[in-house]
Specification:
Blueprint lengths: L29 H7 L3 H29 L13 H20 L12 H25 L7 H31 L5 E6 L3 H12 L5 E8 L14 E4 L3 H8 L3 E4 L5 H14 L2 E5 L12 E4 L2 E7 L5 H36 L5 E7 L5 E7 L6 H4 L24 H8 L7 H6 L4 E3 L6 H4 L15 E3 L1 H5 L6 H14 L2 H17 L4
Parallel strand pairs: 1-2, 1-4, 2-3, 4-5, 10-11
Antiparallel strand pairs: 5-7, 6-7, 8-9
Length: about 500
């Protein structure tokens, strides 16, 4: 279920759409910048696979040379001396650069078949191995076993291919569940547009979700594309991109060049990618390589620079800290569960459907703090609501149990949400996840808060938790989305610890 299903169309297209800040620089410089443009988790996993391959190579060398051929006089290996570590680092650096050159770390990771990806992986690894052999020869280092270099290159090739195959199968399973896909709109309503749209819909392994079609300027009324799938015209692209959380626009019908140039400018403002069918706008796509979406050749006109390293660090921190928190809090959570069951009837956990990043619905876990069937009793309390807008809050809510009041005071009822963080549905820091009835009342600009993962805590929780203003609530969440950084998350976490210790929750 997507958030756009909750947004009313009437009046939503009015007003200017807030822009996403343009990245400071999108030009790679040197090896560090080259790897920064690659998905950091994939690079990290490849490095781990190479280290495992080194261990396998040492074992193979020991078995084949020392025990079978009795060549124990052959000297040491990569990895047990400073110079050997330099050789290992050289191999890793070359492999990452060559793999990136082959498109193995590109943003469009599913444009090629699995067989092609494995072939490119093997080729990149063999290139790195041959260059390593050349460096060992040129440095006249006789302490490095040439047989070990051979075993290492072969082991790394096998390990990296296995790692890639496992990653691809796992990604396919995610795509089939509608997770981690890129949201696409097609600019055009002709037969080519329809054919590309059908391929995206029918082949989930491509990793795309088709949100609909956009009318090209001056095009005839849609014939090949069902009218119900047309989202609007090109002049409404900012509204469409915000409402449907669009990642990319694919141009499949000829448009005036000035309109495309304007589209590229808007794409930079709102942070989306633009690609076109090969053969269109060659002057705008100069030096751009051919990429495939299924069987359709495309060229990139604009690609938004991702914040790969920052997001990877955020996810890694979420995983490690949430796992540590669950382990440390396990005894307390057990005691809380027993207290809840002893005090009142009903389940220990309260599970509600919440709206997460890009409108995905997920089950949000909390300790139950209210009496059984509390949701059915809420309608009787609506006249007592102390918050404005779509928020709901009642002091001394009669549905809250005694244990529940204590849990809410110190925010202990939210401990199970570390499970959501561990599963990747939430983050430690971010806007709180709303329920569907709240999102139904959102204005279009309010959807900015759904562009990131929801969090256990955020700016609103530490700065204006008792403020009844919905506008302040939205303003703080929007400020977080636009100014997010790793250090801002750390600051909010420290402030949250202070708020929890003071017991200001209700």
């Amino acid at each position: 279920m997507a958030t756009s299903e909750y947004i009313p169309d009437e009046g939503a297209r009015t007003g200017k759409i807030p822009a996403i800040p343009t990245p400071r620089s999108s030009k790679p410089r040197g090896f560090l910048s080259a790897t920064m443009l690659a998905p950091l988790p994939m690079v990290f996993n490849d490095v781990l696979a190479i280290l495992l391959a080194l261990g396998a190579a040492l074992l193979l060398r020991s078995i084949f040379l020392d025990k079978i051929f009795r060549l124990s006089h052959i000297q040491s290996s990569i990895g047990n001396e400073p110079l050997g570590m330099l050789y290992l680092a050289f191999f890793v650096m070359v492999y990452v650069l060559v793999a990136r050159r082959y498109g193995l770390y590109g943003q469009i990771l599913n444009s090629a078949s699995g067989t092609h990806e494995l072939r490119m992986t093997g080729q990149a690894c063999l290139n790195a191995g041959m260059l390593l052999c050349g460096v060992v020869y040129m440095t006249h280092n006789l302490s490095i076993s040439r047989a070990l270099v051979l075993f290492f290159t072969l082991s790394a090739t096998v390990a990296l291919c296995i790692r890639r195959a496992i990653w691809r199968m796992n990604r396919y399973r995610q795509y089939e569940r509608g997770l981690s896909t890129r949201h696409i709109v097609i600019l055009g309503t002709n037969q080519l547009s329809y054919a590309l749209g059908r391929q995206i819909i029918n082949e989930s392994r491509l990793g795309y979700t088709l949100r609909g079609y956009v009318l090209a300027p001056g095009s005839a009324p849609p014939v090949a594309v069902p009218g119900i799938d047309v989202l609007g015209g090109l002049e409404e692209i900012q509204w469409i991109a915000r409402k449907h959380f669009i990642d990319e626009v694919v141009i499949t019908e000829s448009c005036p060049v000035d309109k495309v140039i304007r589209l590229l400018k808007e794409a930079r403002e709102i942070g989306i990618d633009i690609r076109a069918v090969s053969g269109y706008y060659n002057d705008l796509a100069m030096n751009a390589g051919i990429e495939y979406m299924g069987v359709f050749p495309l060229v990139s006109l604009h690609r938004n620079a991702p914040r790969t390293i920052s997001l990877a660090l955020k996810r890694a921190g979420d995983f490690v800290l949430s796992l540590a928190a669950l382990i440390a809090a396990a005894p307390a959570m057990m005691a809380i569960a027993i207290a809840i069951r002893v005090e009142s009837e009903g389940p220990v956990f309260y599970v509600s459907e919440r709206i997460g990043r890009r409108g995905h619905v997920f089950p949000c876990f909390k300790f139950r703090t209210m009496v059984k069937d509390a949701d059915q009793l809420r309608k009787h309390l609506d006249p007592l609501n102390e918050r404005d807008g779509v928020l709901f809050k009642v002091s001394n809510d009669p549905r809250v149990t005694q244990v529940g009041r204590f849990l809410r005071k110190y925010s202990l009822d939210e401990l199970p949400q570390f499970i959501n963080v561990l599963r990747g549905e939430m983050s430690l820091v971010g806007p709180r996840p709303p329920i569907a009835s709240e999102v139904e009342k959102y204005k279009l600009e309010h959807l900015r808060r759904l562009e990131v993962l929801p969090g256990l805590t955020g700016l609103w929780q530490v700065q204006a938790r008792q403020d009844a203003s919905f506008e302040k609530y939205i303003a703080l969440d929007t400020a977080y989305v636009e100014n997010w950084s790793f250090w801002l998350d750390l600051k909010i976490l420290f402030q949250t610890a202070e708020v929890v210790l003071r017991g200001t929750g209700t």
